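Hi R.,

As promised on Friday, here is the backbone we talked about, encoded as structure tokens. Could you run it through your design pipeline when you get a chance and send me back a sequence?
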């Protein structure tokens, strides 16, 4: 039986040429097309997740963190605005506890502004002044 199979094996190999069923190498167009398909899927799934109810990307309405400061490795003190009322909360690894209700809101701090790049001194002038002082 084994001898019969050994004689039949070379005939099967000769009937199918090597590499006939192998996949051809992808072209550059195919690789770029598949990359665009994957990127499109990522963007499309992000769009769908954003519009689902209870999505994690949407901020809660009426709830806003005003200020936060670390007081330990896993402990924080947070001021939260809940529909116009500000609460001072203690946040730990074990839970969250209300520390105080603020009678009046904290003053708003202006958002940090980017420096005006047109008013910066010329680097070449600063370097030449520094080199003159050192010599």
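Update: got your reply. Pasting your designed sequence below so it's all in one thread:
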């Amino acid at each position: 039986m084994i001898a019969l199979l050994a004689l039949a094996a070379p005939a099967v190999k000769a009937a199918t040429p090597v590499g006939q069923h192998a996949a051809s190498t992808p072209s550059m167009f195919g690789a770029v097309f598949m990359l665009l398909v994957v990127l499109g899927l990522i963007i499309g799934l992000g769009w769908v997740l954003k519009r689902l109810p209870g999505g994690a990307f949407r901020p809660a309405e009426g709830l806003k963190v005003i200020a936060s400061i670390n007081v330990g490795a896993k402990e924080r003190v947070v001021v939260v605005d809940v529909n116009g009322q500000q609460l001072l909360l203690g946040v730990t690894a074990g839970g969250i506890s209300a520390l105080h209700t603020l009678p009046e809101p904290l003053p708003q701090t202006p958002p940090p502004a980017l420096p005006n790049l047109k008013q910066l001194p010329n680097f070449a002038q600063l370097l030449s002044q520094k080199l003159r002082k050192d010599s």
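One thing I noticed while checking it: The CA atoms of residues 35 and 92 lie 43 Å apart.

Thanks again,
M.
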